[in-house]
Structure formats: C-alpha cells, structure tokens
Input
Amino acid sequence: MNQKDYISENKQKFLNELLELLKIPSISADSKYKSDLVKAAEYVKSSLLEAGCDHSELCPTEGHPIVYGEKIFDASLPTILVYGHYDVQPPDPLELWDSPPFEPVIKNEKIYARGACDDKGQMFMHVKALETMMETDSLPCNVKFMIEGEEEVGSDSLGDFVKQNKEKLKADVILISDTSIIANDIPSITSGLRGLSYMEVKVVGPNRDLHSGVYGGAVDNPINVLCEMIAKLKDENGRITIPGFYDKVEELSEEVRAKMAKRPFDLDEYKSDLGIEEVNGEEGYSTIERVGIRPTLDVNGIWGGYTGEGAKTVLPSEAQAKISMRLVPDQDTDEIADLFAKHFKSLAPKSVKVTVTKHHGGQPSVTDVDSLAFQAASAAFKDTFDKEPIPSREGGSIPIVALFKEELGLDSLLMGFGLDSDAIHSPNEHYGLFNFYIGIETICRFYQHFSKMAG
Ligand code: BES
Ligand code: ZN
Output
C-alpha cells in the first residue's frame, strides 16, 4: 500500500488517537497539572513505540519530562530529529469557549480543543507520519523524536537536556511543525521567527492602600503612573522609545521587501476575522512586515487596585504589569531586557519605586531558504498541495530553535500546517482536519525528498 492510501484508510484511527491526547490537560504553566503533563508524556511515548520506534523513554527534568524516541536502522543514512511539544497554554477565559477545552469536538471539519493546533495536533502528525512510513515500508532514513513539555513556559529544561545530550541528539536536520501556512490554498514554509524578551514590572507608591477621596489628587496613584509610563514606551508613529532598541534590527533591502510584499494577503479579511475596523502599528510598514520583520512591545497583563464586584474607592499602593517584546534579527534578548529595565526605571517619577524582573525569553531565528532541508520541504509541499510554497517570516517565537543551532549546530526546518485563524492561545483553539491529514502526508514526502537529497 502507498502512503496516501494508508493515511486515507486510517483517518478515523489517527483522529481518535489525537483526541485521546487532547483530553489530557497538560498545562505547563500551572503546577496543579503536573501529573497530567506526565500522563501526556506517557501517551506520546507509547504512541511512538506503537508507531515503530525501537526505543522511547521519558527523560526526567527539573520541570516536565522530555519524551525521547528513535528508529535507527542504518547509521549511514541521514537522521531527522523531530521536535515538538505536548504542553499547552492555560485555557482561560473558560467562559469564552463554546465547548470545554479538554473535551475535543469536531465541528465544521475542525478539531476544537486546547492544543489542537499548538502543538499536540501538529506534533502528533509526526508520530502518524512515522507509523505511515513503517506500515508502508517506506521510511528512508533514521528518525529521532524529542517532544518537550515546557515550550509554552520557556523550554528551560530542554536547554539543559540539549547541552547534556549532544551525542544522543546527533542528526542532519531538525524538523518542527509548530507554525502556520498562509492559507489552505497558499502553502508556505516558515523562514523566520521572532525572538522574545518578557518582563514584569511593579510600581509601588504609598505604603498602604488609601482612601481615594482623602488622598486622591495629592498622592500619585501607582496605577495611573504605570499607565503613563507604559504610554511613553511607544511614540505616535508606533516606534518603541527605548534608547538603543532598534540599533541591531536588521533592515531589509527594498528588493527583499518588495519580494515579501508579493505574498498574498487580504487586509479586509484579516480585519473582519478579528472584528476590527482598522489595523495599527509601526508607520512605514505593512501588516505582514509588522508581524514578520519588525520588533514590537505589548502589555500582556496589568493589574492593581480593586477589580472585584461593585465599586471601591481606593488609591492602591501598587500596580503591576507583564510586558513582552517580540524581537527580530539581530536583536539580543538579554540586551533588550536590560535596555528595557534601564529605560523603564528612568520613566518613574520620584513618588514611586519601580522594580523590573525578567521572565523567559529567546533569540529570533531565520532559516536559510537555500538549504537542502528547505528545498526538500518545498518539493514535499509541491507534491501534496500541488503548488510551490512561499517562504514566510512569522511573528511567533520558538526560542529553542536558536539554541539548537548554537548547541547542536543544527538548522531547524519549520514546516507547520496551522492557520493564523486557528485561535492558538485563545478560546476555541482549533485545527483543520484537512491540515492534520495533509500535514502527515507532506511530512512523509519530506522524508523522501530529504533522504534522497542528503543521502
Ligand atoms: N507555536 C507557537 C509559536 C508560533 C505560533 C510560531 C504561530 C509561529 C506562528 C509556540 O508554541 C508559542 O506559542 N511560543 C511562545 C514562546 C514563548 C512562550 C517563549 C510564543 O510565541 O509566545
Ligand atoms: Zn504556543
């Protein structure tokens, strides 16, 4: 039987197995779910063994376990190292889900569940691709799997694991499906990802909460101050005001920008999908550029004072915010974090004390579009979508990609099949059945082309 037929005959089985994985609430950010992360890891491990790995194990870490698996049959053949993650983002706000996040349902040819696309659905395509190749006697190379449970919280343990297991992880290329295509009829291969610096700030004013009538107007309110400080982080042109922030930003030539602009993009559809009348961002750049090749800064959360039911007239003692910056080559995550901290503190009036702490971050990365792997992926997409894929720089981050390059000397090929509209990290996350099945097929084709080209 050929690969396509095997996939076609096993559609329901593949789907049922994915649904079982989606039922496990493997939320890495919340320690309450620690045992569910182990459960999800165990599930991935047994799926790998069933699919045909000779060996699979859970590698314990200080955080959540890493699942390792391999099928090696000839050391002289190329080796593909698959990376993915079985952890998911918290599902909040729960009330905005049409169906419970860990009770997957199929609606309009899409799987609705937290992690359906990011990344359980996409990671599981690789397990099923291995099964397909094993069952059709068509695995043309060696394969290793490294599936972690901390991607959504910064991949701390994976960094150490990679550094300590260089020999075990030896490969020719890393293959990742944790990104998107432009549209189901416009295939694309991710050619770059943004980096990240994630900060938390605290503004403290008076030594206790105050009556806002007795003291209001005379004592600085930390929430007001925090908002004013945040407002100063961008100017009227949408440029970030942190001194030195843009110093290392790679400016692309007009020629490269013109080529990127040819990528199909429907602004009206984009706006209507989000329910907004207007887009906004750094002046002089298109929407595609604003998320692909430009850095940015966003407040991810802000709190302080009274947020309960009804009204409480309080002048709070403190206010806090989480602020993240998406970075592009050649910005450095640590440098940007330091520049932010220095600048943010300089914005504070004498009436408050400011502390800035650094959360996880990651370096931006770009893929060489002339590499063997990129060419093999292009050929694979052409086989399955019947169209030449377009290289596309994406706005999200997979910080570990830069670390793979640094520690293992390996390039990552980012072959994702999600859509921007899949609502990852949002309520009602979903993944198209079309994407799930064509992803499995395209991955199999990639193995074929890559092995031929690299062998
Ligand atoms: N799959 C995403 C990254 C992504 C999404 C890349 C869409 C390209 C397009 C990944 O799981 C993710 O969300 N990463 C985090 C990284 C962070 C927690 C360090 C992100 O981008 O916020
Ligand atoms: Zn994610």
Summary: The chain has two domains: 3-193+364-454, 195-249+295-362. Residues 195-249+295-362 form a domain with the Alpha-Beta Plaits fold (CATH 3.30.70.360).
